[in-house]
Amino acid sequence: MLCLKETKGELHLFMTHIEKTNWAIKHIDKAKYLIFIPGLQAAAANTERAKELIKKYQDFTLARYLLKLSLLQKRCRQSPQSFKTPYEISMKGFRRKFNGTTIWRNKWKTQIIGKFEVAQIQIKEKKASRMKPEFQYSYSIKEGNAWSLLPSLLDLSPSSLASMSL
Q1: Domain range annotation of the chain
Q2: pTM of the model as a whole
Q3: Which residues are 135's β-sheet partners?
């Protein structure tokens, strides 16, 4: 359960950072219209540069998140799906829309495999077009397969021996 909480926490921080910077990318384009106001032409000229810096920050955040996942994977077995991230990525970083924001996957889920259970996290709903994004998570925990439960089957307590002799 600790692995589930830690993975979910890292995922939430990652998505919050990305969605806040997406909000900034969307709204920085509006600064281009300052070119028509005398004295603010310099600010309008720097909007593209600021947009590129924000995109590079997002790519850095992606690399940092994937590194944290690989460190977490040493303690908690995770499915390879978790390295896909809820956003579409390529070898160079995020895949982007025309306006520069990241592309959200339609379906995304991850699995964490414990000793006796398999936990799954899935994002059901996203309200991210705000400065404070909101995500709705769905969790499901089920018992693991027979091989992971094998140590519990070898319990040789007197009550279990009595039930086996019947």
Answers
A1: 2-165
A2: 0.72
A3: 126
Residue in this structure with the two tokens 């009595």, named with its chain if needed:
162
Distance (Å, whole) CA 59 – CA 33 = 27
User: How far is C-alpha 8 from the geometric centre of its chain's CA atoms?
Assistant: 8
β-strand partners of 123: 137
Map tokens 């000229």 to a residue. 45
E strand intervals along the chain: 77-78, 89-90, 93-94, 109-113, 117-127, 134-143
Do residues 43 and 157 make contact, with C-beta atoms less than 8 angstroms apart?
no
Write the pLDDT tens digit of every residue in 68-99.
Answer: 988 888 887 777 777 888 888 888 889 999 88
Phi, psi of 131 (to 5 degrees): -70, -30
Structure tokens at 21: 């910077």
